[in-house]
## 1
Amino acid sequence: MADPNLPALIEACAQPGCPLCRLAQGATERFLDNLFYEMVNDAGMRNQLRNSLGFCKTHTRLLLDTSLRDPLGLSIVYLDVLNKILSTLPQPDQPGRAAGLLDRLLRRLPKETTELSIDALQAMTPRSPCPACHYRDQYTHSMLESLTIHLETPDLSQALEASDGLCLPYLRLALEKSASMSGFAKLILIHQNKLQKLRDELAEFIRKSDYRFMGEGFGAEGNAYQRAMEMLVGSE
Ligand SMILES: [Zn+2]
Ligand SMILES: [Zn+2]
């Protein structure tokens, strides 16, 4: 049976940047879009978001800086999260185990302080990963598996050779998952060429930045530093 991931992989290779980062970004945005559309009222997802204390830093920025921003959905999620933190924090004025601990902390009694610190730290520590990271990791896992399985089919290997290449984090994962030694070698060869080309472009940019050669003007090497930086860490 044909692998449904294959056409998406080949298509992403024709776009700028790391094809896997591009696919993962698109998939994560669709996930977040759906989340606010359908899942905010889903008890399982609400519970997951309470345990993860909302989203990670990357996905918080994504939600705030793009059209994914959904004030009502985000208010519902974060009301839950803040309630969870507040209800887990030790209550100074309530009876029970934690009663008076906050007062005693203020008076600095070491034994109770430790007990209180553990409760307080636990209340502020996520117990599960950001749901968007979790979804993205599952998605990229499936894409990486398809990539390594089909790496030696001409359509995919040619597309990958013509692409900007995988970023190093996904290249490392792809190498770890390699289905064969020849697939492993192919991945190395493709990316060695890309790294060499990028290195040459950086050297060319530096050469042209010298006042004696400024008249030559910049070509594709003008943004080589950006592509090099993204290749090292990914572009999500
Ligand atoms: Zn990437
Ligand atoms: Zn995240």
## 2
Amino acid sequence: MIINKYYKYLIKPDVRQKQIIDDTFAAVNFVHNCYLSDLEKGIRMEKRAVDIAARYKKEYPFLKQIDGSAIMNEIFHCQDAGKKHRRYRSENESMNSYCTANLPKSPVRILNGEYLCVTKLGKVKMAYSRPIPEKAVIKAACIMCCPDGKYYASILIAYEKKKETYVIDPDKSIGIDYSSPHFFVDDKGNRVDMPHYFEESEKRIHKEIKKLNRMVKGSNNYKKQKLKIAKIHAHVKNQRMDFLHKLSSDIANRYDVVCMEDLNMEQIASRFSLAKRTYDNAFGIFQNLLKYKMEEQGKKILYTDRYYPSSKTCGHCGYINNGLRIDERIWICPGCGMIHDRDVNAAKNIRKNCLERYYGRRVSG
Ligand SMILES: [Zn+2]
């Protein structure tokens, strides 16, 4: 089994390297716009990306100075977007990233855990915060500049992993129900909340945006304030990813089977409508992280039936309480009289339903 993964690192290009990177962003953007305008004009495009690239380089000789792989990749991207009928990047959406493949002619390498070597740039200082796995092959590097002015390299690596022969123990399972105002509640009665610092950062961002709106557009102070806001945003994003990574690793390490509801992102958004801005798509990210961390260990994520009424069903006697209102956090089962915490009962039902569906076994409690 081949595993593909991105490893992202902060890089610190010097003035000369920054110039080259910025020129490459501009060139890649230029190629993108050329491709779009060619399409609009009805120009017959060459089938092979390499021929399109050759034509552009002939028409616009300055492209010859630019990393050829970055240009090729942008053309691949355009061709791909066309095939899948995806929306093209709009013209004013500036693209502050480019990807370059690790090719014999233009190698991408990590040197002494200190430098990233990329064609045209040479040795760029990097914060090698986590080592790539042994025997991993570097496939490509994507260089990007974030709104806070920091540069990053996302390095795509591939490595061979033996197919997991892990034996799953269905007893080591957890049911998870996401519910506002908590992030999620599990079948053991644990409630996991999003840390409070997100709310605080939200307030800070709003305060700084108010300040920004009072400034003269385009002035130096305006630009400084914009950068300040971008930095807070980046900080919040890092904090959130850190929280989601830790939480998903913890669950993936502790359990063999995670049981969840089969919700799509829209349903998640509608559940979080009140707190949507704070939560945004954190749960979606969490699900994805958890999924790959479980799969990597040969473990499983199971989903309930789409229409399984996890909240309304009494986990004790199976009675379906159709009269249950959304604001009833605690309810008494009309069938057996058991007192339920809405979320914990739902999480228990989710676990039960999944294990019954996949393992055909009855679960107690
Ligand atoms: Zn009951």
## 3
Amino acid sequence: MNRLSRRSFLSATGGILATSAAMSASRDASAAPSERVRHAVIGLGGQGSSHAAAFNEVPGCEVVAVCDLDPARLERAKGKLNKTGELKTFTDFRRLLEDTEIDTVSVATPDHWHTPVALAALAAGKHVYVEKPCSHNVREGVLLADAAARTGKCVQHGTQSRSGVGIQEAIQFLRSGALGKVRMAKAINHQLRGPIGRAPESDPPEGVDYDRWLGPAPVHRFTANRWHYNWHWFWDYGTGDIGNDGIHQIDVARWGLGVGLPKAVIAAGGQLFYDDDHETPDTQVVTYEYDECYLLFEMRLWTDYPLEGHDNGVVFYGDKGKLEVGRHGCDVTFIEGEKKHIGEGSDFGANVRNFVDCVKANDPSKLNAPIAEGAISAALCHLGNIATRVGRRLHLDAAKMECTGDDEANRLLTREYRAGYELPVVP
Ligand SMILES: NC(=O)c1ccc[n+]([C@@H]2O[C@H](COP(=O)([O-])OP(=O)(O)OC[C@H]3O[C@@H](n4cnc5c(N)ncnc54)[C@H](O)[C@@H]3O)[C@@H](O)[C@H]2O)c1
């Protein structure tokens, strides 16, 4: 399997060490976790609020701190958590990370902040649950997986399908050979996102640290679209829907096929449906080529009707039948027509509980969605976007972690970091 390799990025990024994706983490014996895990959530939008509720429900774990640079979101989170014990609040995540009473953090900010916050958290000695996609570009994922392996901390990725018991059983079923040779998987992401309209430049909301929200991204005046949730559709902050919902399906497809980085990527996409501020595609197709199989991704953000039995999901095609892994569970149809229901779909609560269990055991090797895997799935999303943007087939040299003979594509494997917002270095 092609993996993100420690040596590979040396050449591609001028001497910055990357990681072996294998979870050969050196265990940090000095940092034995407490029986009661004290958790903090950074970024309190819809997903951060779900994190706060989910972590608070895990026995032996307590949310003790929350952070958002939008004071209104901070207030809302305080109200929702309705805690009797103390809840520390922060508007600057760096101050939160200085708090030695905090063991673990969730990173549920927009994508362009995932790796910077996660690296800073590792540097501060915390275990990290980082939302998907863990990175805003390929290089960030490499650095994050490397830092996780070197520190020996638990870093769980927000690809919670990996904790769904039904999906785990479906992957076992694929491995058993019961579907024959599986030479193709199709990851489908289609849903009705709706248009976002056109938002004029304006002042940011009162009390918000908008410069920090922009962080490493170039300065751009505030608009209501370059802000909560709709940032997903701007390259400076988001990764489009391939990195938003598509990553869940791509991660399962890659897991089922048992593949890592592809040898080549072909893609096309654009804004074919909505006429609005979107920069990222509303329609996209990507083919990832491997020696023995193809992984296809298709995305339509303008339908919400089930096709092929489901809306979002993955279809694995073998010579004896197909396996569908969708929101409604995992189902096999054999060529002769026989059907078999394997189990249900993804499980966010189980992914959170698995993370807390690993933290208590101080053992990243038991993580269901380790960052080493998450970084590869995120890399596939980034490569799909790069191939779409440059409009050419990418030939990936996984050993060097570069696209052979394609300077324009290679520049998009990383980004320019605004002064004052460079990536933290994890010792
Ligand atoms: N795993 C899943 O199924 C799933 C589901 C939904 C969202 N997500 C992910 O969760 C993340 C958040 O999504 P959302 O819909 O809640 O987005 P959102 O924009 O609504 O919320 C993000 C919050 O982070 C805050 N923030 C931004 N920069 C910050 C910083 N430097 N420090 C502190 N706070 C900061 C913002 O003010 C905002 O309140 C996204 O990356 C998304 O992909 C994952």
## 4
Amino acid sequence: MNQLAEELNEVLAGTVAERLFSEMGRHMYFPKGIITQGAEASERAYRFNATIGMAYEHGQPMMLDALRKELPGLTPTEAVAYAPTGGVLELRKAWKAALYKKNPSLEKKNISLPVVVPGLTAAVSYICDLFVEPGDTVIVPDLHWPNYRLIIEERKMAAGITYPLFSGNAFNVEALLEGVRQAGQRRGKAIIVLNFPNNPTGYSLTLEEADRIANGLLEIARGGTDILAIADDAYFGLQYENNLLCESMFARLTNLHPNILAVKADGPTKEDYVWGFRMGFVTFGGRDLTDQQYDALTKKLTGIIRSSVSSSCSLSQNLLLKALTYEGYDAQKAGYRAVLEGRYKAMKKKLASMKLPGGLEPMPFNSGYFMSFYCEGFSAEALRKKLLDEMGIGTVSLLDRYLRVAFSSVEEKDVDDLCEAIAQVVAELQA
Ligand SMILES: Cc1ncc(COP(=O)(O)O)c(C=O)c1O
């Protein structure tokens, strides 16, 4: 094993992170190579900086006129230079400050500096690189973002163990906890993914459910099981009903018990309406982890980044940094959120007022971008195809049993027509 990896493992010795590492996680380190030497030179090389593979002219990176014309608000360094492997420092600090503002339960809890990765997909994938290895099990609800399966089962060669997301109209807290208990008994550790608002159902936890999950995990951790809790907060902050948990479960689980490591995967993709920016953040939260230990964990994660994509897009990072401090940023975000909430309310109202054909059942939803129908007695895929072929309406079928509808993408005025069309096509399928 590389000497630098051994040093990082030494710093993390005895922590839940060290116990949870995959083989890749254990071996990973951030090399003292070109990047470190380049960073040193950018601080101290006052005559010539002949380190990094970029082309400079008059002290600035070269930049094509066509790009200068399109990006007048950015300096060449902001627009075209490489970003540091872990991301633009100012942006990381700004995101961390925002995490405390958006998650009141984080108050007085020490978390790591978020690391920039190229999107939430990369965030989940890199977290799994650090902690999941062949033979491990990762506990996800039966209704989950399908990409988890690709990451967990095909990339990491682990097993995705599912539990029923719902018990009646509520989140199935007991099934999740039972999965964690069983994983603990088998291997002494459990890895869970908590995604609220959930894709594909648009379900967020009630405050009471969130408390029960946190208390249940605490009890299991006290019994000696190491728990990795991955909070996928892709749709953070889009809760539309009272009494829902509006902050991340990460905030509840950070600092809860020395056997629990919480890791937050989030980013501006949906929160800031920049889907194609390809930017996300990974943040660690553990009970009593020191800054030096967070730094060691972060170095391992930057090793993962360096060895895969090297660094994330600097243009989007610098644009987001400007957006975060732009006057009117909060107001415009609130405005967009209100538009989504309007579509949600329209969907709820229409579904409550309609007589839906038997077998077409809206599942509980209270947040996010989506809602899903449970399809009983007919094929969800047949419904999807018929909606597309005969009505020109695009939806997503999952497991041939669920139809996912992204109300986030349908104008409020069209929501009634959308629901009518779905009901009509189901009735035709059943005729
Ligand atoms: C639950 C969930 N996690 C992660 C992602 C991926 O986000 P990104 O586009 O930032 O990779 C999505 C995107 O649809 C999602 O629904």
